[in-house]
Amino acid sequence: MMASLSTPPVTAGVSPSPRPSLLAYKKAAGLTPSPWCGWRRAAVATAATSSNRTAAPAETIVTGNDVPLLSFAEVAERLDEFHASGTRNQNYMAMYSSIFGGITTNPSAMVIPIDDHMVHRGHGVFDTAAIMNGHLYELEQHLDRFLKSASMAKITLPFDRSTIQSILIQTVIASKCTQGSLRYWLSVGPGDFQLSSAGCANSALYAIVIESPSLPVPAGCKVITSSIPIKSQQFAVMKSVNYLPNALTKVEGEENGGFTGIWLDDEGFVAEGSNMNVGFVTQSKELLMPRFDKILSGCTAKRVLTLAKQLVADGRLSGISSRNVSVQEGKTADEMMLIGSGILVKPVVQWDDQIIGSGKEGPIAQMLFNLILEDMRSGPPSVRIPVSY
């Protein structure tokens, strides 16, 4: 039996009715949209046509009389309009917020308070669980890490573990999503814009379901050695919302024609990618990963290490090891791969100017990709929780 929420819970198996769009109401009734409809779109379009951002034409300057004072209904209407504009490139199926104490399936209502300290101070943690064939994959394992991160970040839980798990599962039920991901956050909560969280009365839990109908493809990629400083050990092993270094490492990799950047630790050993772990197949056919003591302990990476025992048993791998990996050893490996929940197992065929192995996707990376994908589809109950839609 699911734990009860502090507010009336969503009934399992019953999807809440989404709030109909105000624009839809007006169109159905034959009403003319608010005179302010399109104001934001027009302003953005005007600004976008300016070739000189530092000296915009006079007509793009916003004065006090140009900025409307909006009612709540007008704000909701504009949020609907923003969502309908196609600016977002992912499908958000449902969101839970402990602030309003329930689940919404209207993407326009999927908001959090701006004075939440997770927003303006980065005082929050998060995690993700995949949804595959109507099952949550490794939710328990991700929750373990999630709650450990919250403890390290000094965030008091708004509910006990069983209630948090119940809320997450009910959010997936409401979403009706059978393939995608469940992402969730714990924050010290809203309250003010101070640095200290002393003014935050209650911590906050948020969760969102993102539909992803297509599966990742294990195509080979290039990586670079990142010039962005790696996070210190205390923050690297915690999955907090402080992902600016991660984002800049990813952007730097893309700017240099690659998929992402690779961090080295303070001793110069291979650490991790921007938001994924790194694995190698050595010339002696050993599956090798850097130790998790200075980097994030990847749930997918640890599951891959478990599944890889099958390849040791059939002789495809000589062994499995976790230890320090030098850049030289990594670059001369037979295979290199990135491992994470969003990509599963992605082969690396070039690191900086060094071609890895044959320069093509390696067979072990492909086998590990297939093993983790099959585990997501039909693995044991220890890693798969069925969702009762």
From TrEMBL:
Family per record: Belongs to the class-IV pyridoxal-phosphate-dependent aminotransferase family.
Could you tell me which species this protein originates from?
A: Oryza glumipatula
**Entry's Pfam families?**
Aminotran_4
Does this entry carry the keyword Acetylation? Answer: no
Question: Which keywords are on file for this protein?
Answer: Pyridoxal phosphate
What is the name of the protein in this document?
Uncharacterized protein
Please provide, alphabetically and separated by semicolons, the GO molecular function terms listed in this UniProt record.
catalytic activity
Q: Which cofactor does it need?
A: pyridoxal 5'-phosphate
- rRNA processing is among the record's keywords: no
According to its UniProt entry, one GO biological process term is: carboxylic acid biosynthetic process
